[in-house]
Amino acid sequence: MLEILQLISTLSFFFVYYYYGIYLASLVVSLLSLVQFLLCAFARLPSTTMSQSNLLLLSVFGFATWFFNNPLFIQWKISIINLGFALFLSIYRHMKNEAFFTTTFRSSRLQIPDVVGRQADNALVLFFLVVSVVNYWIFTNYSEAVWVNFKTALLFVNIIYLALITAYISKHMQPMSDPV
């Protein structure tokens, strides 16, 4: 359900941008993100800390873009959040001495070899870093319209990339055996 709400939010940003500009589009995406955040918090919808952080930051950066009449807030958000996720995954693995994916699946009563979890972590960290750099490069070198097209396409790129990681992990996933 959250993925559908995220898709609606992104497409709303895209359509409002083309009819009313980046400031109103930023306000709309900010409000929709806040609604999603509150739904997850109060309706107890399943979500991750990363997705909740993303929604809250999108709401803050979108509102700041509208309030201060400056598109750099919403443009920087993608680079900042992706860098933050890359750092989180890297720090998590070094502090826990285990892959984030390995721990996440274990909490769902599934197991994957830690080497598979580490490879998935590395792939995701690399993806986050690339997205962060490409976003910065696009919004500093191209028009706002090009950046909006990139931002919109990024939703679909994220879905495809996560599907590929999921397919890789699912080949190695097994249910945890119950202790006798």
What would your notes on this structure say?
- The mean pLDDT is 88.
- It contains 7 helices and 2 strands; from the N terminus they run αααααβααβ.
- It starts with a helix and ends in a 5-residue tail after the last strand.
- A two-stranded antiparallel sheet has the order 1-2.
- The chain has helices spanning 2-20, 22-42, 49-68, 72-96, 100-107, 114-141, 144-170, and strands at residues 110-111, 174-175.
- With 180 residues, the protein is mainly alpha-helical.
- Helix 6 (114-141) packs antiparallel against helix 7.
Short description:
By secondary structure, this protein is mainly α.
Give the helix level as a range of percent.
over 70%
Mean pLDDT: 88
Model regions low in confidence, pLDDT < 50 over at least 5 residues: none
Rg is 18 Å
Shape: globular
How are strands sequenced across the largest beta sheet?
Answer: 1-2
SSE-based structural type? mainly alpha
Largest sheet report: 2 strands, antiparallel
Distance between the termini: 37 Å
Write down how many β-strands occur, each being a DSSP E stretch of 2 or more residues. 2
State the helix count. 7
β content, as a range?
A: under 5%
Order of helices and strands: HHHHHEHHE
